[in-house]
Amino acid sequence: MPKAFALLLFSTLGAAPLAAQDVAPAARKPLADNSFLLEEAYNQEAGVVQHISSFVRTKDQKGWAYSFTQEWPVRGQRHQLSYSVPLAQTSDGVTTGLGDVMINYRLQVLQDEDRGLAISPRLSLSLPTGDYKRGLGVGGTGVQANLPMSKTIGTSLVSHTNAGATWFPKAPGAGDSSTSLRAVALGQSFIWLATPRFNVMLEATWGRTTAQFDGGTTSTESALVSPGIRWGYDFKSGLQVVPGIAFPIGVGPSRGTRQLFLYLSFEHPFTAHARPQ
After folding, report:
1. Which of 33, 140, 182, 230 is the most exposed place for a label (fewest CB within 10 A)?
2. How much is the pTM?
3. Are the beta carbons of 183 and 221 closer than 8 angstroms?
4. Given this model, what pLDDT does residue 12 score?
5. Picking from 14-23, 49-58, 167-176, 246-255, which range would have the lowest pLDDT averaged per residue?
6. Could you tell me which residues come within 8 angstroms of residue 74 by beta carbon, excluding any fewer than 6 positions away?
């Protein structure tokens, strides 16, 4: 599998606010952004849009991977649509370009504030927009399902658990014209709310990718542990800006891998009555 695509597969400009309502920073809830390498299970609130940028670079490699995701509520918080647009440079530093775009739908099946539990399964369609011959995509249409669960533990700790799978019936970018691709991934993160606007994070991810082709099957695994931090800035317009940084470290089958992960989120109302967290 092209290394640039592998980063995007296992890692994942908006409208201006319309008469955004003033929201005092003290009224905001603690940060509830994505856990960097995983998904949180909180859909966007009604009338609030989020723009998420992430950047990954691996030590001793020239390549990098960038992804821009925009999340929109659909008639309330229960339904959410989003898309992810990746840009990448292959590990040899020679090729740079658009990767495979993903269209995502999430359903908020549970958000129990009394128990501090939320569940929001996601289904995604991966489109072959990247040039697989240049190492920027898989070369076929695929589907991905992910089940994120978020749980508040006490007053200052939040956990996010993910389990997902991806399938490409045709994936010439991972081998040849006969290749199909399957992947499974698991992840767990813990977020310490040191303050409502400063979080300390620890994440762990594991994934296995299997390529099947005429004459055989090959499998590869990856495993990362990632410490990081994020912090937030609130504005009276309703805009919330959350930067973050993490340092994923390879363990087990990925031993020796060292990465830099950068995160930046902009979240704001696009209706007059929305109140972002």
Report:
1. 182
2. 0.88
3. no
4. 36
5. 14-23
6. 80, 81
Q: Of all helices (H) and strands (E), which one includes residue 5? A: helix 3-10
Q: Are 230 and 199 within 8 A, CB to CB?
A: yes
139: left (phi over 0), alpha (psi -120 to 50) or beta: left
Q: Which residues pair with 45 in a beta bridge?
A: none
Secondary structure (DSSP) of 254-268: GTT-BEEEEEEEEEE
3-state DSSP assignment of residue 134? helix
User: How sure is the predictor about 7, in pLDDT bands with cuts at 50, 70 and 90?
Assistant: very low
Residue pair 209/218 in contact by the 8 Å Cβ criterion: no
Tokens of 170: 């045709």
The pLDDT value given to residue 83: 98
pLDDT value of residue 6:
42
pLDDT tens for each residue of 137-170: 999 999 999 999 999 999 999 999 999 999 999 9
Task: Name residue 90's amino acid.
Answer: T
Q: What would the DSSP string read from start to end of 175-192? A: SSTT-EEEEEEEEEEEEE
pLDDT of residue 63: 93
How far is 259 from 91, CA to CA, in rounded Å?
13
Q: Does the CA dihedral 169-174-179-184 come out positive or negative?
A: negative
Supply 54's token pair.
């992430």
Span between the terminal Cα atoms of the chain, in Å? 39
